[in-house]
Automatic annotation (TrEMBL):
Pfam families: Relaxase. Residues 304-324, 332-342 have a biased composition (Polar residues). InterPro entries: Endonuclease_MobA/VirD2 (IPR005094). Residues 304-342 are annotated as: Disordered. Residues 17-147 form the MobA/VirD2-like nuclease domain. This is Relaxase/mobilization nuclease domain-containing protein.
C-alpha cells in the first residue's frame, strides 16, 4: 500500500477537489456532511478552537494495486473504511474530524482522507516526522489486511516520479528533470570512476553540481541542477547521495580529493555566474529595473546528508537586503511598516502555493510561469520562476509556522500570485453557485 500526505490551510479547496472528481463518493469518517459546502462548515467548528493555527488541513491518500480490489464494491468500501479508521487513529487522529472519500478515476484502488489537525478538546495533532510514522503504520496495516508490501520511495535506491511528473511526461512526452538526472548519473557511473571524474562527466552533460562541506572539511551532501531545477541526492534516491554513489554505484572517493572537488564545483559556479551576467547585460533596460524586497534570510542545509546529527544542526540567521536593479551593490533600507507589509505578502504567496498543491493532490504544481514544489520529508516549500530560478524557499515547523531559507520575490511576483488567488476564489464562488 502506498500513502501520501500533504498539509494546508484551506478545507474548502481540498474538499472541492476530492469530491469534485468524477465518480467520487464518501464512504466513511467522523462527519455528517455529504457535500463540500456542508463539510467545510463542519470543519469550521473545530477550527474556531485554534483560530491562529495556520496549517489545519491534513490530506492523505492511500492506494493499493488494482489486483487487490475486492470483487464486491460494498465489501471493498467496508474494508477501506476500516483501513482509514485504523490509519487515522494510529497517526494520532483519535479525536478529530475527518472524512473518507473513494475515487474511481484510476486503475489503482484508492481513497482520500481529509481531516482537521485540531482535536475536539482543542489540542493539535503533532505532525513531526509524520511521513515516517505514516510508513510504519502502513506496514502494519499491510500485514493486518493481507495487502502487498510496497517499500516507500525514500527507502529505494531510485525515487519514483511524482504523480504530477508522470502526468506531464504522459501528456507532453517530455521526461521530468528528476528522471533525466537519474539517467545521466546512471550513464556516468557505469565505468565505476572516481568522484572527481564523475563530477566532470556530469558537468560536461550540463549538470550543475554543488557539494556541501562541514566546517572540518568533511563532505556531507551533494545536489544536482539541470535546466534550473535542483534536486539533492536524497530526492533522487539513496543511491544518488554522496555516500550512496560509493555504496550502490561503486564510485571511489578519497578525502584527499576534497580540494579538487571544491575547485571543480567553484569553477562551474563562476562560469554560471558569468553566463548570468552576460544574459542580464543583453536584456533591455526596461527589463532590468525590477524592485525587490528586503528580507531576513535564514541559511540552512538544503543538501542531503547521511549524518542525522548534521541534518538537525540549527540554522544560522543573518539580515540580507536584496538590491534594486540595476545597481547591484547598494543595499536598500526598509522601514518596520514595510517589513510588516512584506511579511503579509510572503504569507499570501505561500498560502496560495499550498492551496494550489492541495487542489491537485500533488507535491508539484505549476501556476503560470511558476513551479511549486513541496518536499514532504523535509517539510519545505520551494517556488521557482521559470526565467529566474528559485525565488522563495520556506522551511516549516510541526506547528505550521515557517522560516524563509531564501526569498527573492519582486512586486510582479506578488501581483501574479494575488491574481492566482483571485482566480481560485472565483472558481470556488462559481462552484457554490452551480
Amino acid at each position: 500500500m502506498i500513502g501520501k500526505q500533504i498539509k494546508g490551510k484551506g478545507f474548502r479547496g481540498c474538499l472541492d477537489y476530492v469530491l469534485g472528481k468524477k465518480g467520487a463518493y464518501i464512504i466513511g469518517g467522523t462527519m455528517c456532511g455529504q457535500t463540500a459546502e456542508a463539510l467545510s462548515t463542519e470543519f469550521a467548528i473545530t477550527r474556531q478552537l485554534k483560530p491562529h493555527l495556520k496549517i489545519a488541513v491534513f490530506h492523505a491518500t492511500l492506494s493499493v494495486d488494482a489486483k487487490e480490489k475486492l470483487d464486491s464494491d460494498a465489501e471493498n468500501d467496508r474494508r477501506w473504511c476500516s483501513i482509514a479508521d485504523d490509519y487515522m487513529k494510529a497517526i494520532g487522529f483519535d479525536n478529530n474530524q475527518y472524512v473518507v472519500a473513494k475515487h474511481t478515476d484510476t486503475e489503482h484502488d484508492h481513497i482520500h482522507i481529509i481531516g482537521s489537525r485540531i482535536r475536539f478538546d482543542g489540542t493539535v495533532v503533532d505532525d513531526s516526522w509524520d511521513y515516517y510514522k505514516s510508513q510504519e503504520v502502513i506496514r502494519s496495516l499491510e500485514a493486518k489486511y493481507s495487502l502487498e508490501t510496497i517499500a516507500p520511495s525514500w527507502e529505494s535506491e531510485k525515487r519514483a516520479q511524482t504523480t504530477a511528473e508522470y502526468r506531464k511526461n504522459r501528456d507532453s512526452g517530455q521526461k521530468s528533470v528528476r528522471v533525466q538526472l537519474q539517467s545521466l548519473i546512471d550513464e556516468c557511473v557505469a565505468s565505476r570512476s572516481t568522484m572527481p571524474e564523475l563530477i566532470e562527466r556530469l558537468q560536461s552533460e550540463g549538470v550543475e553540481i554543488k557539494i556541501r562541506m562541514t566546517r572540518t572539511g568533511c563532505i556531507k551532501g551533494i545536489s544536482y541542477q539541470l535546466n534550473d531545477i535542483a534536486f539533492n541526492g536524497t530526492q533522487l534516491g539513496k543511491a544518488y547521495t554522496f555516500y550512496g554513489l560509493q555504496k550502490y554505484r561503486g564510485i571511489s572517493y578519497d578525502s584527499e580529493d576534497n580540494e579538487l572537488l571544491k575547485m571543480l564545483t567553484q569553477q562551474q559556479e563562476a562560469i554560471a555566474d558569468s553566463h548570468e551576467l552576460q544574459r542580464d547585460k543583453s536584456l533591455p533596460e526596461t527589463n532590468t529595473h525590477t524592485d525587490t524586497i528586503s528580507v531576513d534570510l535564514i541559511t540552512s542545509d538544503t543538501f542531503d546528508t547521511d549524518d542525522s546529527n548534521l541534518s538537525k544542526a540549527n540554522p544560522s540567521m543573518r539580515s540580507l537586503s536584496l538590491p534594486r536593479q540595476p545597481n547591484p551593490y547598494k543595499p536598500t533600507e526598509q522601514t518596520s511598516e514595510a517589513k510588516v507589509e512584506q511579511s503579509s505578502q510572503t504569507d499570501t504567496i505561500i498560502a496560495i502555493a499550498l492551496d494550489a498543491l492541495i487542489t491537485v493532490s500533488s507535491d508539484r504544481q505549476t501556476l503560470g510561469q511558476y513551479n511549486i514544489l513541496w518536499n514532504q520529508p523535509q517539510l519545505t516549500l520551494s517556488i521557482r520562476a521559470i526565467d529566474r530560478g528559485e525565488i522563495l524557499k520556506a522551511a516549516f515547523a510541526p506547528d505550521g509556522t515557517y522560516q524563509l531559507n531564501a526569498c527573492q520575490i519582486t512586486e510582479l511576483d506578488i501581483k501574479n500570485f494575488q491574481a492566482f488567488g483571485k482566480q481560485q476564489q472565483q472558481r470556488q464562488i462559481q462552484l457554490e453557485l452551480d
